[in-house]
Amino acid sequence: EQSGKSLWRGWDDERIVFDSMLKLPFEVFLALRYLRPKRTFVSVITLISTAGVMLGVAVLIVVISVMSGFDRQLREKILGFKPHLIIVGGGPMADYPDLISVITSNRQVKGVAPYVMGQVMVQSQPDDRAPTYLCPVVRGVNPDPELEGKVSVLPASIVAGTFDVTGNRILVGQELAAGMKLKVGDILSIYSAVDFRRMDDIRKRIRAKQEIDDAFLPTDFEISGIFDVGYYEYNDYFIVCSLANAQDLSGLEDEVQGLAVTLVDQGLAEQVREELQPSLRPGLRITTWEAENSDLLDALMVEKKMMFYLLFF
After folding, report:
1. pTM of whole model > 0.85?
2. In which band, very low, low, confident or very high, does the pLDDT at 130 lie, cut at 50, 70 and 90?
3. Do residues 230 and 154 touch, judged by C-beta distance below 8 A?
């Protein structure tokens, strides 16, 4: 009889617990039903299993979040100095003002700027040591910081000096300045492709024993600012001057090499390219930033997927 009463009392307790659990949401009821064994409050094996699943899911979420954040930050650093779209032709572009008006008619276009880039050789002019030489790339930009700010982060990335490319003033990257021991106010001599053609012409005339009536001198520029766009290769490889100076260094008169286009949404680069291509004259092509950096982005995506699969298993 006592055994039967004890059994009945146990069933009654179970019924009370069961009735109270039925009032909970289904997910909580199901979790508590299998988390709480019959004899003890919580099983050690249940705790270990639950903690293992929680830890595995937490690690997976954290790692994927870190990889996604790194991917987004890398894209921002790349696009801070490079445009979303680049429009180039088979040669120098003389009708770029008309092209700019056509491109800006697209509602996804944020800004358009002509650009000139070319490799040069630079020579420092120190007073207390031997000069150093380097072969960076010079890039011509709009001297107006407000207009340039629509297509790049360069005006907001000056860490020393000011954004001033008027006259014979230039900007250099932080890593390039450190490597050549340059500071604001120093003079940098630039030998361009046009200068080397002149040197070759002088050499040929000397060999032919012709009279030389002109002298060759490089162009001197004053460093007005040092920039840091957050990407080592850009800081170490680029010199920035005005568009007019870049045209002179490249041997271009009123022509440019192409147009740099920034968009409201960088993810729509391919869509905007397809929309703009039919409206351009034959011979012009549009390249997206994703196509130019496909190797780096593909490697990052493969690494992200492999981390997901390995941590999932």
Report:
1. no
2. confident
3. no
**Phi/psi zone of residue 225: left (φ > 0), alpha (ψ -120 to 50 degrees), beta?**
beta
Report which of 177, 196, 193 is spatially closest to residue 185, judged by C-alpha positions.
177
Amino acid at 288: T
Contacts of 187 (CB under 8 A, 6+ apart): 125, 220, 221, 222, 223
**For residue range 53-105, what is the model confidence (pLDDT) as tens digits?**
899 889 888 888 888 888 777 777 777 677 888 888 777 888 888 888 888 88
Question: Considering the chain, what is the average pLDDT of its residues?
Answer: 80
Q: Are strands 133-134 and 158-161 parallel, antiparallel or unpaired?
A: unpaired
